């Protein structure tokens, strides 16, 4: 194995440059091989997370389709860094023009709307199927309000979120069921 893949997933070579330098090296090689018109800046946050801001003419490619390419790059870079540093946990966060913050804010706004409906009608409402990282944002936000609870429902990677008033959770009510006659099903997109 030679080139990028050989460096990343071949024999482990101990470098004293640290994980931030490895993140920069991996990302620079991906950008070069993909012929992307992108640049980036890395910084280490207070919690130790390596945060990378990506910018340039090809930003739209990263943020299009709900940021799937940005997520894929982040996963790849994390795995490459983890492979080279198996003894430590390194958290890497890639972002482009505050895409992640804006996406999280949109999720929170929708969760607020659905929470209001659940409280107003006294019924369960359902959030569309989401990946784990998006469900975490919703659950953490809703956990701050003691009037409602939330639960992931479904199988596989993408699951719906059930949002229900706390008083609905009386004995005998099955939180796992979808389609109770008192439930309001909303497929917000």
Secondary-structure map:
Elements: H1 3-9, H2 19-33, E1 38-44, E2 50-56, H3 59-84, E3 92-96, H4 99-121, E4 125-130, H5 132-143, E5 148-153, E6 159-165
Parallel strand pairs: 2-3
Antiparallel strand pairs: 1-2, 4-6, 5-6
Helix pairs in contact: 2-3, 4-5
Can you tell me about this structure?
It contains 5 helices and 6 strands; from the N terminus they run H-H-E-E-H-E-H-E-H-E-E. It has about 190 residues and is α+β, with helices and mostly antiparallel strands. The strands form 2 sheets. A 3-stranded mixed β-sheet has the order 1-2-3, covered by helices on one side. Strands 4-6-5 form a 3-stranded antiparallel β-sheet, covered by helices on one side. A hairpin with a 5-residue loop joins strand 5 (about 150-155) and strand 6. The longest helix is centred in the middle third of the chain and has 26 residues, at about 60-85. The chain is elongated, with a radius of gyration of 21 Å. Mean pLDDT is about 80; it is low at about 170-185.
How many structurally independent domains? 2
CATH topology name of the largest domain, in short, is: GMP Synthetase, Chain A, domain 3
**Global outline:** elongated
Strand content: 15-25%
- DSSP E strands, number: 6
* Measured distance between first and last alpha carbons: 44 Å
Identify the CATH architecture of the largest domain.
Answer: 2-Layer Sandwich
Unreliable parts: 168-185
Largest beta-sheet details:
3 strands, mixed
Arrangement of strands in the largest sheet: 1-2-3
Radius of gyration equals: 21 Å
Q: Write down the CATH class of the largest domain.
A: Alpha Beta
- H/I helix tally: 5
Note the run of SSEs as H and E. Answer: HHEEHEHEHEE
Helical content (DSSP H or I, runs of 4+): 40-55%
Alpha-beta content class: alpha+beta
Mean pLDDT: 80
> CATH H-level name of the largest domain... which superfamily?
K homology (KH) domain
